[in-house]
Amino acid sequence: MEPTFRKSMAWLHTWAGVVMGSVLFAMFWMGTLSVFDREIDRWMNPGTRLSATLAGQPVKLDGPITDTAMRLAQGSSQWFIRLPSERTPAVELRWRNEASKTFERRYLHPQTGAVLTHTDTLAGTGFIFPFHFNLHIKWKDLGYWLVGLAGMAMLVLVVSGVVIHRKIFVDFFLFRPRKHTQRASLDLHNLTGVLGMPFHFVMALSGLIIFVGIYWPSSYSAAYPEAKDVPAARQAFNKDGYGQYRRAKAGEPGAALASLDAMRAQARQQWQGGEANFIRVWQPGDKASYVELRRSYEDTVTMNLDQLYLDATSGQHLYSFTSAPVMTVQRFISGLHFIQFEHWLLRWLYFLAGLSGCILMATGFIFWLESRRASHAKKGLHGVRVVEALSVASVPGIMAATCVFFIANRLLPLDAVLGGYDRATLEMWAFYLAWLAALAHAGWRGRAAWREQTAALAVLAVLAVALNWVTTGQHLIHTLAGGLWAVAGMDLMLLGAAAIAAVTARHLGRKVASPLRAAAQAKTAPLPELAAAQQTAKGAGNSPRAA
Amino acid sequence: MVLRVLGAIGGGYAFTAAAVAAASAALPLVGMSRSDAVVLAATLGFVLYLLVLLWAFSVRGLVRLWVTLAGATLLATGLTFLAN
Amino acid sequence: MLAACLLALLGFAFLALSQERHLERVFESNRPLALTQLAQLAQRATGFIAIGLALPLCIVGEGAGFGCLLWVMLTVAAAMVTALTLTWRPNCLRPLARAAHLLFSFRPSQLP
């Protein structure tokens, strides 16, 4: 490639960053938000804003909850329940809609079994989180493959970044925000990159490792040569590795469902105190109906695969599974990425580290733009214009679009339908249209778009908080006093984001061209005093004292 | 340039996938369960692909890039056949 | 847990303050303020040891899995806090710099 390894890595780092940067920022942004996806769910689905103290109380499944489930899931081939936790105080019920082949979701009160007021929304767990790992591009799994490419690109970027960072230890703690944009953004890029390196590298690698079942289709046939084709080999691998039990329908009605609470007790005994927090009833009402119980992993990093299948009417044991050694390690690695455990300090640290990753990518874009702005303008190249539009749409653009998503959630009536699209889909449309508008605006306004979209972000974030107050009446003081931490947290985060965006927008607006540059642009000779002042300023800028 | 990128990303993936397949076929021969073998091979595959990418974007000469990758891929595929 | 956080912060502070450029920023002085080779080595070693000691503390407090994760995330956080303190509130680190100087140099303080 280039004459030296380091130069090749510099080329690779720049190009991988420019090409994949937009996808990577989107993934990191959605990933960071996903840390609090359940809290976003509470905000976007006000009916589920139950007090967190409810989670501590024992839940009885037999009775109202099971009755409601059987009633709502009438005619469905399966329904399942997730038991409440501190972050999700309600019982989550889902069942398969046989007509549309999708899953419906309702939340139930954990003590009364009543169906909570439903807002048809995908919210955090249904939109933001899946966006992070498949970009909502379902066609031929293209989303997964693009995410995989981005993940590999991230690994390449981190390693190449280290290779080209000559003074990595000398500059370890260095950040000079008051220097000109190019230097300040490079400092911050290096700072977030180097200091956050364990996080960025491990998150990228662990994210890829989660999908061992997708990215190497060649491996299944190799390990299971007796399978007739790749999908069959993959099925065999899934069964061996992740555990699976299926039993055909009998086609005739069966006896009533046995006690789910008794089954939970059986599971608790088998797992020596481990609780089942996921219970699925397959083929409800059929003679061959069976119940699947999965073990909670709220108190451990490893996302265990312990599962138990029992006959639905007799409770007879059908199948148990626990993961093999290497798979258990893979589930630990998955667990440190998914962070489904209950640990508030770790969760917040992940959130902050995720934000640092977002800053890493944003400063990467800014540095690239600043370092090439002058030369591209002189040579008449369009690169900077194109990348600038993409960067603005990718950074403040997607953040503003996310706020529009939240605003649409508060504004749309509960049973809104438009052009055949249900409410949840309409919210998604709001997000994508806003993002597209950001791109169009950035293309039209060029460099000024940074400030304008950041300012828009500030306004939109405050608007979201205001709309929560107007539509639910649960403003910040109310939620803080009432212990509704999820909602309070979301409102506070939105306000914090608005504040930072406002300050940033002002800062961007105040960047007046230096008198010397202004004079040069006006093609007049700068005043001698100005030139001298500029010289001493430049000289002073090299001493460590200069801020 | 296009050939470089295609070779590195596409060719690199082809080789790594073949290597992962070879390992998935070979590891059970030393006693590991088949699903575990796939998981281990796939996990190491990501690290291998990273190294291949770094090499592919720095090696001098397009011919060298393509020939090495093609050869290595054939070798790995052969190993898979042997193991099975 | 708190001890682990403090140790990590202390460790990174020591590492940062062993670099001349940062010492000069903390004391806002243009005079050369470098530590002697030995003092620098001792201060850096102590810094690394402090950060390393935080790991067993995390494991004891939180268990093996959470402990290791927490330690990695704490080091990231502590390094960031140190860097940002140096950037915006360098004076806060003055007492620490003086204490480090006392500990690791074996002659009277040359610091302003």
Describe this entry's structure for a reader.
- The complex is a heterotrimer of chains A (547), B (84) and C (112).
- Chain A is built from 20 helices and nine strands.
- Chain A has helices spanning 5-34, 37-44, 64-72, 123-134, 142-164, 181-195, 197-210, 212-215, 217-223, 230-242, 260-270, 325-338, 344-379, 383-411, 423-445, 449-472, 476-482, 485-509, 515-521, 528-540; strands at residues 78-82, 91-97, 102-108, 276-282, 290-295, 307-311, 317-321, 417-418, 421-422.
- In chain A, the strands form two sheets. Chain A has a seven-stranded antiparallel sheet, with helices on one face. A two-stranded antiparallel sheet of chain A has the order 8-9.
- The relative contact order of chain A is 0.10.
- Chain C is mostly helical and 112 residues long.
- Chain C has helices at 2-17, 20-27, 37-62, 64-88, 94-104.
- In chain C, helix 1 (2-17) packs across helix 4 (64-88) and helix 3 (37-62) packs across helix 5 (94-104).
- The A-C interface holds A 170, 172-177, 191, 195-196, 198-199, 202, 300-302, 332, 335-336, 341, 343, 345-346, 349-350, 352-353, 356, 543-545 and C 1, 12, 15-16, 19, 21-22, 24-25, 28, 30, 62, 65-66, 69-70, 72-77, 79-80, 82-84, 86-87.
